Every structure is written in C-alpha cells, then in structure tokens.
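#onboarding

Welcome to the new folks! Below is a worked example of what a typical request in this channel looks like: someone posts a single protein sequence, and someone else replies with the predicted structure as tokens. Don't worry about understanding the tokens yet, we'll cover that in week two.

Example request:
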Amino acid sequence: MTWLVPVQITPRFRKTCNLVLTFTPVQNLPPHDYEAALRMAGLKAAAYLGELARDVSPNEVKTFETLPIMEGAKKYPDLPRVGYVQMLQSQGLLHDTYVYGVDMKKSITTLINPTEIFDGAIISGNCVSACDKNTTYHHQNNPVILDLFEEHGKTLNFVGMIITNENVFLADKERSSDWTAKLAEYLSLDGVIISQEGFGNPDTDLIMNCKKVEQKGIKTVIITDEYAGRDGTSQSLADVDASADAVVTGGNANEVITLPKLDKIIGSLDCVDKMAGGFENNVLSDGSIVVELQAIIGATNELGFNRLSAR
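Example response:
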C-alpha cells in the first residue's frame, strides 16, 4: 500500500515535495511490532521533512549559559540553586519516550544538559491519552527550561536538569524516585521544579519524586494536570501527599467541549467514540463532536505549554 502525501512547505523554505509513505500489510502482526513499525515510519518521515530546513537561516538565535557546576556556584553564590526534574512517560505500548534513541524505561534517572533537549535528545512515542502527552515539539520547546534560562543569573542559578522515567512496577518507581532525590541532593539544590507526563499511574511517580526531594530539605513545585470529573468535584490526582503543597495545573482533562463541524476531514470519524475522551454517540447530527479535553493532543500539557489552567 503506497500513499502519496502532498506536503506544503512555508515560503521560507522555497521548496515543495511529495512524501511517499509505503506500508506493507502484515496479517496478525503482534501489537508491539505493529506500533514499532508505525513509529519508525513516522521517524523516517520526520527526518525526511527535517532535511528541508538543514540550510535555512534561523529567524532568531538565543544563547544560553550552561556553566560547570562548581563554576556556576562561584559565579552566582548568592542566588538560589534551582534544578528541573522532567518525568518521561515510559509505560510500554503507545506510552514511551526515547532519549538519544534509547527507550527511557530501560534507563535509570540521570543528568542531562538542558540545551540537549532543544537539539532533539528526547523524542516522543506517546499517544494515549492525548491531552497530557508531550510531542517531540513540546520537548524541543520546553517552556520550563526556557523560563529557567530566562531567570538564570537574575533571580536564580539554573544548575541543571534531571530526567527520570515512569515505569509501571512499584520497584521501578521506588528506584527511580530514590535516584531523583539523590541527584537533587548531589547538585546541592535549593529548589526543584518537577513536571509530570500522563496521569493515573504516573501520579504515584510524581508524588514519590516530590516527597523524597522534599525530605532532602529541597523545596519543590510540581506541574501536573487533573482528572477531576466532568463537574470538577472528583479527586484530581490518584496519589497525594502533604509535601506537595506547591502545585501548578494544566487544567481538567475531563472537561467536556464541543468541536464544531469542519468542512474538510483528513481521516475517519469511525473511532472518535472509542478514543480516550470520547464516548458513545458523541458525533452529533449537525456534524459537531463532543469530547473531553483528554482527546486533544497537548490540551492539558504538563510542561505548562498552554494557557489553560484551573483554580
């Protein structure tokens, strides 16, 4: 099966192309193999399109200061030392993140230079539920990192970044959160921002990270979203702790919205009642669609990428 997809390139690139995607149907392909094949096809398409921008001059160039730990401490002795812990989804099929091509669930909590994220060190393999999954674009334009760099040397010393996974077994959660706290202490941090990815199961990872970092005497702020029910009265997170007393929310993923009828649809409406956030008979007679926010990619992004919040 071959699809010819016309790709429209902005005038800046002064190039046009047709992207040819070839799929060979395989009967009874195991779900994980099927998902891996589709993901690789997407990566190849992204690399192909990305080549069009290789020689394009950027509209803007920003320079970020990333000093060695000891040098940074000497340069900003009076500023609070702040770090960023980014939690990466790593729960298996349709819930994976890759760091330099390695599935994050195969890695332990580790340090990484924040500017490496801008260069594409982290790419997404996430899909379900869409609202609080980080696309590769979200990673490469992470607003937490950008805001910390903006304040670096002014109100705080942005010391560095810790990445950790969100595995499904309790022992993995304990090990990863232990390492998060150890590394935060190792960096002699005064404060930490922790961003979550996903909900439910990862809520436990979030609270473990928060609680253990706080136990080291390091102040934390967590960024999450909520599944508080359509009326907003349900418990927002699956796990809680008194130490999580500074929380930023990306909104309530259960909030119901109506998407107006569109004149052109690419794809099929057959699955909109089955996807996360959809429900039976949610395609109305006038062509509009009623869904929860969780059906829309990045709608309650937990990097604070959006303007949506709740209080």
